[in-house]
Amino acid sequence: MADLFDQMADTNRDKQELARGALCLPAFVLDRAEEVIAELEPILTQAPLRHLITPGGHKMSVAMSNCGELGWVSDRGGYRYQELDPLSGQAWPAMPKLFLDLAQQVAQEAGYKRFQPQACLINQYLPGSKMSLHQDKDENNKSAPIVSLSFGINAEFLFGGLSRGSPTKRLTLQHGDAVVWGGPSRFCFHGVQPLKDSEHSLLGRQRINITFRQVY
Prior knowledge:
Blueprint: E1 3-6, E2 16-19, E3 22-25, H1 33-46, E4 63-68, E5 71-75, E6 78-82, H2 97-109, E7 119-125, E8 131-134, E9 146-152, E10 155-159, E11 169-173, E12 178-181, E13 190-192, E14 198-199, E15 207-213
Parallel strand pairs: 1-14
Antiparallel strand pairs: 2-3, 3-12, 4-7, 5-6, 7-15, 8-13, 9-12, 9-15, 10-11, 10-13
């Protein structure tokens, strides 16, 4: 049964250090959320959300797409970045200037200067969707941070250490929150618990996560 109250972001939460080099910035992009959501519509019309297949043959529970110079894809051939959308054979939609500006502002807030992402991953979580603990390691550039923005219903985010079995911290990511990790925390394992069924006034029963990667 869905929790049908309107999830309102709590703007009074403090910045939180998850590990050395990793920060959660509550409500950091909240005031631009409606603009971000408006920018998504033409992107997802050109490059629709899809459930990718892992190299092991499993369908991901999270639907995704990309914008920017490069897009992240997965199939039986492995995980990789590529210039063309495999569904259309065309280039991915351009990354909106707003997206780039917000990504760079988040990175700057955490002390990461000159962040120039070429890839923007767009993930759609519906109730029950999850992301298993994993590392982001498909990028050639190992020094640039990962920047992640959350919109829609809440998600329980797990942030661990450099091995899969390390203890994890759990925090609730709300609409408009940003997380950034790099430096000594760049390869920390992280994931998302299965989403609870609830509803947000702007996005309904879904969470949209936008993640920026500097691939080279």
